[in-house]
Each structure stands twice: as C-alpha cells, then as structure tokens.
C-alpha cells in the first residue's frame, strides 16, 4: 500500500494501492515523509491515526478520511470498516482525502495545537477559494506560496497578477487602487508571525455563515429545492440559491427526535409548539438507487450528528480542563502579584529607611563638623589663654624683679641718709 500527500491549499490526498498482505505505507506532505508496513485488513480508523500521526496532528478527532465509494458517492467511510471495502480495488489505487470533518464552535480559541490550526487553515482556504460569496479579503489574500503576503519578498506587482476576474468584476477598482488596499492590509500584518496569521484568518473565517457546515440537497413538502446544513451548533435549512443565511435553524439542544421513512426526513423539536420539519430527499434516476442513496446519506447524517455531539463533548471536556488550568494559572498569578506587591512594599520600606539613614548620616556629619570646629576654637582659646598666662607670669616676674630692685634702692638710700644725718 502506497500513500502520499500533496498540497495545493487542500489538506491532503492519500492514494493507496493494495498489493496483498502485508502492505507498505508511504506518507509525504510538505517535506514530511515516512514509511510503514501495514496489515492487509487495515481499518479506516487505524489508517487515519497513522496519517495524522505522520502529519503531526494531535487533535485528530477533528479530521477524517473522505473517499468515493463503490457507487461513485462521496462519503466518509466508517471507522471500523476495512479500507479495502470502501472502494473497488480493481479500479486502481484507493484514494482518500484527509479533510476536516468536525468543526468546533469557536475554532480560534478551541484549537490548541499549532499544527491543527494550520491544517484547519488549509481546509478552510479550499472552501473559500471555491465559494464566490465570501469576502474578498479572505479569497484574494490566499495566494500561491502560502504566506507570501507577509514576506519581505512580496511586492505590489504580485497583487494585480493574482486577482481573479470574478473578483475584479465585483468591485470597480483600478490596479493602483487594488494595490493600495492590499498593501495597506499587508503593512498592518507584516510583523505578524505565521501562527498568528493563521489564527487571525480562522477568526475572520469562522464568522461566515457557511463556516463548518456540511450541506445536503433536500426538498420540502411543496417540492421546493432546499439545502440542509449540519454544523456543530445544529441543523439549518437554506434556500437553494443562498447558502449564506439559514432560513430555519434547529439547535441540537432543541431537537427531540430525528426519524425517516423511505426518502422522507423528519425533525421533531423538544417543545410541542416548536417548528416541525418534514423534508424529502432529492429524487434520483432510479427509485431503488435513490432509496439506497438516501438511506445511506441519512445514516451518514445521523452518524455525523452523533460524532458531532461526541466531538462537542470532547471539546467541552478539553475546555473544562483548560479552564481548570487557566484558573490554576490565575491563582498562581494572583499569588505572584501578591508576592510582588509585598516585595514592592519591602523595597519601598528599605528605600525609605535608607533615605532616613542617609539623612541621619548627613546630620551626624554636620554635627561632627560643628563639634570639630568648636573643639578647634576651644583649643585655640586654650592656647591663647596659655600664652596670656605665660605672658602674665613673665610680667609678674618682671614686676617682682623691679619691685625688689626698687626696695633695694630704697634701703640703700635710707642707709645713706642716716649716715649723712649722723
């Protein structure tokens, strides 16, 4: 068995050739490739698991293998079926398309893995490029080369050469005006990473009414052609020439019962006074073939709705887990904020203490300087006092000497006077 993948804005095509037991498997997609040996009784679910694993897709429950069955009908083979029973082996290699089968309610937030988002982008791009009713910003910004619009090598000349004629006819704009508008869009997203660009693309695309909707052709009681659309939110009835705005909507939680009889399909709402849907499948060439096809399609629809509900339940579980994780992270963040606040308060206290300590040091330095000045003055006064005391002692000694000399002269004069008188 040989399986390969190639991409041109579609998710992938798996071509399998049956050569007996065991068989080989080769997978290749955008530079990713691998080989394996498989049993001839390989089940569809095993092949899907191995393909998703080879592509690096972890959230593989969103994806499925699509093929054209023995009666040339496009279908999703059941997971527990052998791949050799899904198509006629004698007609050549087995062909499987790897596509997004289930869409979550909010893909931009519920898709966790980057690889899953990338392949959702490929699948959504394929749908949008084949639909004339989608916005031009989504249709024409998907150019060959993937994300060339945000690459440095992109030039304004790439715009006019890659705009399709149907888009040109919808808007009365010249090449210069197109270039200005597109380059304005490019300049606003030029610094965006590849994963962020994919997220933004999915966020814009999921707001479209036809996003994630699988359509089936039906008729109402008046034999009017209509479309039945199935998505993650419920059932929608569309007019045949308008797949953008649903005419009637049945959310899953408002549907009580789904039933069918031959080629008629019935939807019973939960409320007795609610809308009741009675539709007829499109009439084919042969009545027997029509009955088989309609029953097969109804089974596919019922299985698709059931798997949608299961995918919704799984998504809710994942969301609850992530909400718990987010709550834990929020609690940790609050603790970190509280700890940071305490650190900031401590830092402020330390800065204030340092400021006060700095002021105290300056004050002590000023007082010490004044003390030194006063001590210097005291020392100066003491030295001056000592000089004055020394000068006083000298003066007193001189005074005593002079006084002694005077007294001696007076005694000598008295003696001379007495002698003269005698």
From TrEMBL:
It is a peripheral membrane protein. Residues 284-405 form a coiled coil. GO terms for molecular function: actin binding. It is found in: Cell membrane. SUPFAM superfamilies: PH domain-like, Second domain of FERM, Ubiquitin-like. Keywords: Cell membrane, Coiled coil, Membrane. The keyword Coiled coil applies. The keyword Cell membrane applies. Its main location: membrane. Residues 21-309 form the FERM domain. InterPro entries: Band_41_domain, ERM, Ez/rad/moesin-like, FERM/acyl-CoA-bd_prot_sf, FERM_2, FERM_central, FERM_domain, FERM_N. One of its GO terms (cellular component) is plasma membrane. This is FERM domain-containing protein. It comes from Schistosoma margrebowiei.
